[in-house]
Design a protein that fits this description.
single chain; 373 residues; mainly alpha; Fic-like fold; Arc Repressor Mutant, subunit A; three-stranded antiparallel beta sheet; 16 helices; elongated; binds adenosine-5'-triphosphate; binds magnesium ion
């Protein structure tokens, strides 16, 4: 039971009294339930909607990447999402990256390695967290050693110094013990719905702060994977990070509120809002993409006999298309035919050509516009 209200709290001292889960069930009141309903509904809609997409994972790749892309100078230099991802990961230093870019550095790899680990093992446990952390931080370290003096400071990500706002638990076996309790709660508690468990666990994970760094990013990825594990999502396609980064002050404030005042309710509402807003945003994108897909299909099919449903799907599986892909799907084996096809697609406005050095890429401008808006 959560008795944090009765415990004297000092932000400069390791918070070894961090209460174990579950918190009191009374934190789920009417307002929380109403919000939970809205968030659950938006999430269920997303989960259904996503299966109508030719490539569900494109959403998370492109939406997350757009956030970083729009706020850095790397715009327009790289032509495929893959290259952009690689360029972001290879050239940007974590310490100097802005929050949006820092988020996508190794985000995809970390998400994937957690997702694959989960689909193999099926159990949601500490090892998943460690795996994500290792990818996020590009390290082989594990849970922080008991002597490491980790603190959270004000304005931590912008500049190094600042007053201490929180000191996580520290001491022999204490992090492991609290993590075990956390995963036990996630796996076995039946009094809380999975979405609420995710919200509760996210606070707890950040409060335990099991790693020397990267706890925020690891925790945000864990949220998604837990939703997948609980079958609330078939693919980890909810980009909660943007909402959290955009509302960072509020997010920090409400996290601290749980520690200092046992104020679970504002925290739960924040997380449910994040889920609802993000799912709605993605739903809107999917609707727009599907509508555009249909319009493009109709338009192109009328003019080009060889334009198939499969090709249309492929052209909407990602915004940057290589000629080779069109060749494979349309069955245009000769160079002349393929060149003619590409010209026709460009004339119709389905794709536009972009030359990068010796390579020509084709861009689905409609798709790109929807993703960037
Ligand atoms: N008062 C607090 N109590 C518990 N956790 C907190 C508190 N304030 C912030 N945090 C968590 O600590 C995270 C930052 O920790 P850390 O630097 O290890 O993660 P990061 O991934 O490197 O950073 P970021 O989350 O800023 O990208 C925040 O994202 C937040 O989740
Ligand atoms: Mg950090």
């Amino acid at each position: 039971m959560n008795t944090s209200k009765n415990i004297k709290y000092d932000r400069n001292v390791p918070y070894n009294n961090l209460p174990e889960l579950p918190p009191s069930e009374s934190i789920i009141d009417k307002e929380v339930l109403l919000k939970w309903g809205l968030a659950s509904r938006a999430l269920a809609e997303l989960n259904k909607n996503v299966l109508r997409m030719p490539n569900p994972l494109m959403l998370i790749n492109t939406i997350s990447l757009q956030e970083a892309q729009s706020s850095t100078a790397i715009e327009n230099i790289f032509t495929t999402e893959d290259e952009l991802y690689k360029a972001v990961s290879d050239t940007v230093k974590e310490e100097t990256a802005n929050p949006a870019t820092k988020e996508v550095l190794r985000y995809r790899e970390a998400l994937w390695s957690g997702y694959t680990a989960l689909s193999k093992k099926k159990t949601f446990d500490k090892s998943i967290a460690v795996k994500i952390f290792q990818q996020v931080k590009n390290t082989r370290q594990g849970i922080r050693p008991q002597q490491s003096q980790v603190t959270i400071k004000r304005g931590q990500s912008e500049f190094k110094s600042g007053e201490i706002i929180y000191t996580p638990p520290r001491g022999a076996g204490i992090v492991e013990k609290k993590l075990n309790n956390l995963f036990e709660f996630l796996n076995n508690n039946t009094a809380f719905d999975p979405l609420l468990k995710m919200a509760v666990a996210h606070y707890q994970f950040e409060a335990i702060h099991p790693f020397t760094d990267g706890n925020g990013r690891t925790g945000r990825i864990l949220n998604l994977l837990y939703l997948v594990h609980q079958k609330l999502l078939s693919h980890p396609v909810l980009y909660l990070s943007k909402y959290i980064i955009m509302h960072k002050d509020d997010y920090y404030h409400r996290l601290a509120g749980v520690t200092q005042r046992g104020a679970w309710k504002p925290w739960l509402l924040f997380m449910l809002n994040a889920v609802e807003a993000t799912a709605q945003h993605s739903n809107q994108k999917i609707d727009e993409i599907l509508a555009q897909m249909e319009a493009t299909h109709k338009h192109a099919q009328k003019k080009l006999k060889w334009y198939s449903y499969e090709l249309n799907q492929a052209l909407f599986s990602q915004p940057y298309i290589k000629q080779k892909l069109v060749g494979e799907i349309s069955g245009a084996t000769s160079r002349t035919t393929l060149t003619k096809y590409m010209q026709q697609l460009a004339e119709l406005g389905v794709l536009s050509a972009q030359v990068e050095g010796r390579e020509v890429f084709y861009i689905n401008d409609d798709l790109l516009r929807i993703l960037q808006e």
